[in-house]
């Protein structure tokens, strides 16, 4: 049985420390594949929520000083309960964000990191051109992705025209893509949430990352055919394709 079927059967609750820009799209992705999204920013309820959640997705897109303790507290709870932690390190190449992520990784174990080429290179102490939330150079450099996996101990998903998924030993490439992904802000955040949802029901986090990334790419290809290059319609078609996936 594919992991998508397990998601539909188990309807896992996926807890999100989301950014405030794209959280509706993130909630939609989780719900359309059969999961149950929940967003919080309240420290007081984290212990209760991590008990019922099956995965934690931390997206630092709109971080602030108060959020670092929340990320750490939620991450520690997830680690203690053996639930997967997915990190979306939005614009981590910027100094303040880099400081926050460095501090976070000292305190918690992150199981999967999903970012663009510029963000992933940061974890390998390398520089790949980027501006804010966007990568400007979609390098397909397997050595960087492997190094990022080894340095962090996390599974790495580098998104771009070709997606790369790596643990410390192997790299898998996914080449199916649509250029309508790129214009739509938050498709990376959606992918991180989809990976979180798949890892919520699969003990094999590498398989979860691969299957979720493949499904997202293939759904994008189908959606692009349906909407004939209309980028706003693309998101709706993408969600419809995720809803229909099996
Ligand atoms: N140039 C491109 N052509 C086709 N697909 C792309 C391209 N760039 C990214 N993608 C796809 O778009 C999705 C989002 O990846 P991207 O690398 O843009 O994430 P991101 O920069 O974190 O995005 P965001 O910050 O908007 O959420 C992924 O499914 C990725 O495979
Ligand atoms: C545009 C933007 N700014 C902070 S987060 C975000 C959404 C992409 O991650
Ligand atoms: Mg991003």
In short:
The chain is of the alpha/beta class. It contains eleven helices and ten strands.
Structure report:
With 246 residues, the protein is of the alpha/beta class. The chain has one domain: UDP-N-acetylmuramoyl-L-alanine:D-glutamate ligase, CATH 3.40.1190. The protein is built from eleven helices and ten strands. The protein is globular. It starts with a helix and ends with a helix. The chain binds adenosine-5'-triphosphate, 2-(4-methyl-thiazol-5-yl)-ethanol and magnesium ion. The site of magnesium ion has 5 residues, from helix 9.
Structural classification: alpha/beta
Report the portion of residues in β strands.
15-25%
Biggest sheet strand order reads 2-1-3-4-5-8-9-10
How many domains?
A: 1
Which blocks of ≥5 consecutive residues have pLDDT under 50? Answer: none
The level 1 CATH classification is Alpha Beta
CATH topology: UDP-N-acetylmuramoyl-L-alanine:D-glutamate ligase
H/E topology pattern: HEHEHEHEHEHEEHEEEHHHH
Strands, count: 10
- Identify the bound ligands: adenosine-5'-triphosphate, 2-(4-methyl-thiazol-5-yl)-ethanol, magnesium ion
Residues in helix, %: 40-55%
Q: Taking Cα atoms only, what radius of gyration do you get, to the nearest Å?
A: 16 Å
- How many helices? 11
Largest sheet entry:
8 strands, mixed
Mass-distribution shape = globular
- Identify the CATH homologous superfamily: Ribokinase
How confident is the prediction overall: mean pLDDT?
Answer: 96
The CATH architecture would be 3-Layer(aba) Sandwich
Cα end-to-end separation: 10 Å
């Amino acid at each position: 049985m594919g992991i998508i079927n397990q998601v539909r059967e188990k309807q896992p609750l996926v807890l999100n420390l989301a950014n405030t820009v794209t959280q509706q799209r993130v909630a939609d992705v989780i719900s359309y594949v059969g999961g149950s999204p929940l967003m919080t920013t309240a420290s007081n309820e984290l212990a209760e929520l991590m008990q019922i959640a099956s995965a934690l997705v931390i997206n630092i897109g709109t971080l602030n000083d108060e959020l670092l303790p929340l990320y750490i507290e939620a991450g520690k709870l997830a680690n203690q309960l053996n639930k997967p932690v997915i990190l979306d390190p939005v614009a981590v190449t910027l100094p303040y964000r880099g400081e926050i992520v460095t501090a976070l990784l000292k305190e918690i174990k992150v199981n999967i990191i999903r970012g663009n080429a510029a963000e992933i290179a940061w974890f390998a102490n390398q520089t790949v051109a980027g501006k804010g939330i966007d990568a400007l150079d979609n390098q397909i450099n397997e050595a960087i992705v492997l190094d990022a996996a080894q340095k962090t101990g996390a599974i790495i998903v580098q998104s771009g025209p070709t997606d790369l998924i790596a643990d410390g030993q192997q790299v898998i490439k996914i080449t199916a893509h649509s250029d309508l992904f790129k214009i739509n802000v938050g498709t990376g955040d959606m992918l991180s949430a989809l990976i979180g949802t798949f890892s919520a029901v699969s003990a094999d986090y590498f398989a979860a990352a691969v299957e979720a990334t493949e499904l997202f790419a293939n759904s994008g290809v189908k959606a692009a055919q349906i909407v004939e290059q209309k980028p706003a319609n693309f998101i709706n078609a993408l969600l419809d394709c995720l809803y229909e996936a099996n």
